[in-house]
# Entry
Amino acid sequence: MATIIDDTAGKERQLNFLEEIIENHIAETDGRIQTRFPPEPNGYLHIGHAKSICLNFGLAEKYNGKCNLRFDDTNPVKEDVEYVDSIKEDIKWLGFQWAGEHYASDYFEQLYLWAVELIKKGLAYVDDQSQEEIRLSRGTVTEPGRESPWRNRSVEENLDLFERMRKGEFADGEKVLRAKIDMAHPNMLLRDPIMYRIIHSEHHRTGDKWCIYPMYDYAHGQSDSIEKITHSICTLEFDVHRTLYDWFIEQLGIFPSHQYEFARLNLTYTVMSKRRLLQLVENKIVRGWDDPRMPTISALRRKGYTPASIRAFADRVGVAKRDNVIDLSLLEFCVREDLNKIAERRMAVLDPLKVTITNYPEGKTEMFTAVNNPEDESAGTRQIPFSREIYIERSDFMENPPKKYYRLSPGSEVRLRYSYLIKCEEAIKDEQGNVIELKCTYDPQSGGGSSSDGRRVKGVIHWVSAPHAQKAEVRLYSNLFAKENPNDVEEGKTFLDYLNPDSMKIIEGFIEPSLQDVAPGSKFQFERTGYFCADPDSTPGHMVFNRTVSLKDTWAKIADK
Ligand code: ATP
Ligand code: MG
# Structure
């Protein structure tokens, strides 16, 4: 069962554990706060990264500190400038600006010199074993590992071999540099961890300058130290790495950065590892990294999410010390809340049923005034055309309605939003008995919201004038996965077995004229339907809209329970 978080955003709340740590730090030191966000440029950022961005940049902002952007580009095989560019775009879009832009690859020379220093201190050695042999000799949690036959090479030999590794004299996998710590250490990561491996591959920034690359554990803490990071915040799975992080810094006697861990963000009906997201893209299961069904920041942006909604979400989720899964409906709640304030209202009919108003003059067009945003008076009004033929939603008519159905049925009356009261006189059917058109009459005294005899009509429905309406492609999305936790893979299956076959439905609807040719990215509430965002696939005369989120608020229902 997914965790439901209290609706406490905006209200006064207790400090989270990281804020407590930082406030203590400020009290005990000069108060300088420096954080960093350290993505590996091997994919697009997702909503989990957004959580980390909001945390690192947010803490720096709150405590007058600075936050760096550091690309953790230590694996040339998987990394690319395309990803670097998208990461920068996403962070800026979220509303944050980094103090320094750094690359772990800028530190390769320094990292190399420090490795040489560790060799000289007898704390690192070149191992000729294969990575597989090293893995097998590492022991288990209950048994110590076996020392490498190359563990006791002389400092001179190690220096010579390491230099020749750098020069490219050896093939991939032929040698590695390992820290000399303790093959019986209770923390397996300290059993002589690999510091460098040989990879003859072009790096997106350093080209072919290097053919030895530092491992995460050796590069990360030292990069933090170079940038004088005071609080190196990362996700929980790194807590076992902390001892090693501290070990390198201590042996080198460099600036003492410290690592703190928080629980990573998990969302229901979503996968969030870049490796899996890449699979979805490469197997063309989605249309790209920014396919609105993806949990990436670029996909959420395309779908119509606002930066404010994502920041509010990160805030509500809070900072936990234990892993949990957040209900996707909380994210939807946050975007609905923001769009309700800022999105202008429009009328669009997504499943059209034609209505002819038989007592309305043929060829006549009348304009009615519609309010753009009842939450924001400054958004003003617009004019919408009305005529004898209109479209309404098919679901707004029922031949044999149940009680409390306040929309159209034979003989019943409804109000057309901003316009007249109409009464259903007859439903026209095709040969199969499907209703294909309604014949209605209108009350000429009821225009713009008032009826002649003051009678109250409960139902108000949206509509578009048929001769003025434009056709538009509307993409309706639902969860990409049918299983609440697609990461929980049963034997013999993969996460791809849990895809929802109906995650995207493309329909053709009718939009009011003011929606024609709006700029991609424009956001609207289609009245009574949901929030929609114009897609960049739109071309002149052919609009494409993505449904950001429906109006139905499952979150509010859950919160009520
Ligand atoms: P993935 O597993 O999705 O590939 P990653 O951790 O390998 O993610 P990085 O580029 O290394 O991706 O992550 C950059 C930063 O974002 C790291 O500090 C990482 O801890 C943080 N981060 C990644 N995923 C999440 C998440 N789901 N929730 C919170 N923070 C995250
Ligand atoms: Mg990573």
Notes: The CA atoms of residues 169 and 281 lie 37 Å apart. The chain is about 25% helix and 20% strand. The chain has four domains: 4-103+219-275, 108-216, 276-344+471-561, 348-462. The domain at 4-103+219-275 is CATH 3.40.50.620 (Rossmann fold).
